[in-house]
Write a structure and sequence with these properties.
Order of helices and strands of chain B: HEHEHEHEEHEHEHEHEEHHEH
Oligomer: heterodimer
Distance between the termini of chain B: 71 Å
Largest sheet of chain A: 2 strands, antiparallel
Number of strands of chain B: 11
Largest sheet of chain B: 6 strands, mixed
CATH topology of the largest domain in chain B: D-Maltodextrin-Binding Protein, domain 2
Strand order of the largest sheet of chain A: 1-2
Radius of gyration of chain A: 22 Å
Strand content of chain A: under 5%
Helix content of chain A: over 70%
Number of domains of chain B: 2
Strand content of chain B: 15-25%
Largest interface: A-B, 55 and 57 residues
Number of helices of chain B: 11
């Protein structure tokens, strides 16, 4: 309960001002395509040079929490996921916004973010010592199996067809091998300097999600039927609150999956949203509604990606090991003030540590209030005519990909992947499994290589990867996930008539 | 209208004329940019931001230096860009990491060598150290080597990757102790390698002194030896490898500094070589670096040129066996 004692520090005028600046700035930075939470926090670090340690961390903590939530804005309104964490949000969020219910989608996402985020920070406050041990429990073999578990999600993530989902997942896994290999430094598929460093995930995301819809909008631009202006429904916040409260299943799955996965160093928030989305669809009674603008999809995805914020800092704050890229940037922010995370932080600088954690807690609430306040306004983006919208999204896509590492190469990668994805979408493939493959490929590969090197030096491959309670549990979940997907596919086939299948194909093309 | 155009072109001509005649005396006239080939938040990026924060002072360059991150492939992406695409106009600086880029150029597959760059000054030296987890049975390097002698090839230890300082240190240790070890490169850099040690995935590890110092303060690890010629101010109690009877020099020490692309005008190089080391000596820089546990080691251009050449030679020899 130590954290309550330091709560007052957050509310001194200057600190609270910084918290508000961090929150609003974070929302804006998060909503800007191409600016991931990691980059947003890195951009703010120079501003903390002049502040004292507590104030600097209030700014960074508030910015971190709100950029993660802010990413949902561009995911929902523009179909450009601000960061890998928001991929799952586009699936239902953007569809909902296209129906004129952008305000509802944004409200749901902010409320779900708040619930997940607050839960995650409470985990950080109360269970840090336990969680630290848990974070260390995952060695190379376990991370390998975890990545394989993610691969089994690939097949079921695409609602139309398991085979197409797996195929596009394979394309993603292949793309993940491009560039210098992380461990050996071997060069793979480098036919142009732009891809020497591998395919950067942010430009890839922007390309895969935004470009196909830009091309579609340009292609349809002149059709008279498209000129009708979409009416944007107003949506009272009360309704959104009621809806989130009614979707306890999606909310609890999202929060649990997000905090569990956020804790594991190296896997982090990138896949939390997608795994939560997939899991809540598997147990949902309205399974078929996912992907058509269903509220459960948004709630699961957004509660998961904010729930991961708190736990993702556990390895940093207790063991001084940054578990995620954003944590690494925060480490820099701490070091610049001469504060070493670890036991030193809580013993000798409790004020800094707890004020930082409190600022994330209060930051979540402020983020939700501001988010809800602007949701109605922001949702009007959907009223912009398609031709204008296409130009704006294209501009943002180029800007976003370039700004990641100031490289035209990334813009080319974005454009190439986006154009390719447009044609793949015409054949019924979807982008989400492809991106998941792109994210999971390096995790699975690097951990397998590392694990096998350790195994070859100490025991043998079989016993290293296939024994031990954690390995066996993960393998069991992998098998269960595959069996479940296969069973659902067979059952689905049996009950789908030929007419339905034809109708579906036509709807897609 | 015609008059206007004529006047404008006259003005333009006289402007360019002025710039040409000026011969870089007024350099720098606009803010500078420094490329860091590692991601934001990493040790190199963090230190680069601190050492350049006083660039805008009147006694330094008088104009700020902005940091530009071009991470990827262990620094190869950034240095490739710097060697081939960066403008040699004096406004594009780069951060170097020795032995990384020299080892990579020896390994091949990149478009730079030590000759592609002109060093300006060195700001830091982060030696590699050998670490084991706090509850490890090893207490000295002798324990480690004895274990490796009894179990050849079974002593697993982590490091940040191949062809980086940690890998060089590992190769030197194998050679000096005459044992076979199992070096496990980590894809998450020094932080990932440190996690592997603390979590007990490997028996030991090579890591940066600055990161190891922090982890030791947190009570997670023991530091058994420093891969450098002298003991570090941060760790006065930890002996060097040479003190423990291993013939290991400072080849693996991670030197960080500023360079410009080859072809940058000599007057600009001279001006930078004169000002930048002084800029590093600013007490504010020293204070922030010390607070972050980052050892400083300021070297002038001539000293860096010498160090690069020496490094090139030792690394050629060490890596030729691979």
């Amino acid at each position: 309960m130590e954290f309550i004692g330091y709560m007052g520090d957050v509310f001194t005028p200057i600190n609270f001002m910084l918290l508000l600046i961090g929150t609003i700035g974070g929302l804006i930075l998060g909503a800007t395509p191409g600016l991931s939470p990691t980059m947003a926090v890195a951009l703010l670090i120079p501003f903390t040079f002049k502040l004292d340690a507590t104030q600097g961390l209030i700014l960074l903590g508030a910015a971190y929490t709100s950029t993660v939530a802010g990413g949902a804005v561009s995911a929902i309104l523009l179909k450009i996921p601000g960061a890998p964490a928001n991929i799952a949000t586009t699936l239902d969020g953007h569809t909902m916004a296209r129906k004129g219910q952008g305000a509802r989608a944004l409200q749901l996402s902010f409320i779900a973010s708040l619930v997940g985020g607050v839960f995650g920070v409470f985990l950080l406050i109360f269970l840090t010592p336990v969680l630290a041990q848990w974070a260390l429990a995952f060695g190379p073999s376990h991370l390998f199996w975890l990545a394989i578990l993610g691969v089994t999600v690939i097949g079921s993530l695409d609602s139309s067809s398991v085979v197409k989902g797996l195929l596009s997942g394979c394309i993603g896994l292949w793309l993940a091998t491009v560039g210098f290999d992380d461990i050996m430094g071997a060069q793979r598929f480098i036919f142009h300097d732009a891809v020497a460093g591998g395919i950067n995930i942010i430009p890839a995301l922007i390309g895969l999600f935004a470009i196909p819809q830009v091309i579609t909008m340009f292609a349809n631009g002149r059709k008279p039927s498209e000129t009708e202006v979409l009416s944007v429904e107003r949506h009272p916040i009360r309704e959104a609150l009621k809806e989130v409260a009614g979707r306890t299943r999606a909310l609890s799955i999202g929060t649990a999956v997000g905090s569990f996965i956020g804790l594991i160093p190296g896997v982090g928030g990138q896949i939390a949203g997608l795994v939560a989305y997939d899991q809540s669809r598997k147990v949902s009674s309205e399974r078929e509604k996912f992907g058509t603008g269903h509220s459960e999809g948004i709630i699961a995805a957004e509660s998961a990606n904010n729930a991961m914020v708190g736990p993702s800092l556990v390895p940093l704050l207790t063991l001084s090991i940054p578990g995620s890229p954003t944590a690494a940037v925060l480490l820099g922010g701490l070091l610049i003030h001469g504060i070493f995370p670890g036991s030193d932080l809580f013993d000798n600088h409790p004020q800094v540590a707890w004020t930082f954690i409190n600022s994330m807690l209060i930051g979540q609430i402020m983020m939700c209030i501001f988010g809800l306040y602007v949701a109605g306004l922001a949702a009007r983006v959907a009223q912009v005519p398609n031709a204008v919208m296409a130009a704006v999204v294209l501009g943002l896509a180029v800007f976003g990909s370039y700004s990641v590492q100031h490289s035209m190469g990334d813009v080319y990668v974005m454009a190439a992947l986006g154009t390719g994805m447009y044609f793949l979408e015409r054949f019924g493939f979807s982008a989400a499994p492809l991106v998941l493959g792109l994210i999971l490929g390096p995790i699975a590969e690097a951990n397998f290589v590392q694990g096998s090197m350790i195994a070859n030096a100490t025991s043998n491959l079989g016993s290293y990867f296939l024994t031990g309670p954690l390995n066996l549990t993960l393998i069991a979940i992998v098998v269960a996930s595959i069996v479940y997907s296969a069973w659902m596919e067979i059952r689905h086939r049996r009950y789908t008539t030929k007419d339905e299948a034809v109708a579906k194909e036509e709807a897609l093309s | 209208m015609r008059k206007l155009i004529a006047a404008a072109s006259m003005a333009l001509v006289s402007l360019t004329g002025a710039a040409l005649a000026d011969g870089h005396e007024n350099y720098p006239e606009r803010p500078l940019m420094m490329m860091v080939s590692y991601g934001a938040g990493g040790a190199t990026d963090f230190q680069a931001r601190i050492v350049t924060m006083t660039a805008g002072n009147e006694d330094a360059l008088g104009l700020p230096i902005a940091i530009l991150n071009k991470p990827g492939a262990g620094g190869r992406v950034g240095w490739n860009w710097f060697a081939t695409q960066a403008e040699a106009d004096g406004y594009t600086l780069g951060a170097y990491n020795v032995p990384h880029f020299i080892a990579q150029s020896i390994e091949g597959g990149v478009s730079y060598t030590a000759d592609s760059f002109e060093p300006i000054a060195n700001w830091g030296a982060d030696p590699a150290v050998f670490v084991v987890s706090a509850d490890s049975e090893f207490n000295t390097m002798e324990d480690v080597v004895n274990y490796a002698k009894e179990n050849p090839g079974k002593l697993t230890f982590s490091g940040a990757g191949l062809f980086v300082g940690h890998h060089i240190a590992a190769l030197q240790l194998e050679k000096a102790a005459g044992v076979k070890l199992a070096y496990i490169p980590n894809n998450k850099g020094g932080a990932g390698a440190m996690k592997a040690v603390i979590a007990g995935e490997v028996l030991g590890g090579v890591n940066n002194l600055s990161d190891a110092f922090r982890a030791q303060q947190a009570g997670n690890i023991k530091i058994l030896g420093v891969f450098d010629l002298e003991r570090s101010d941060f760790l006065p109690d930890v002996p060097t490898m040479a003190e423990q009877g291993f013939d290991i020099d400072n080849s693996s020490v991670n030197f960080r500094g500023v360079m410009v692309p080859k072809g940058t005008p000599q007057p600009i190089i001279d001006k930078l070589a004169e000002t930048v080391p002084e800029m590093f000596k600013n007490p504010r820089v020293a204070k922030q670096m010390k607070a972050g546990g980052s050892p400083m080691h300021i070297m002038t251009r001539d000293e860096v040129l010498e160090m690069w050449a020496a490094r090139e030679e030792t690394l050629q020899e060490l890596l030729s066996g691979l």
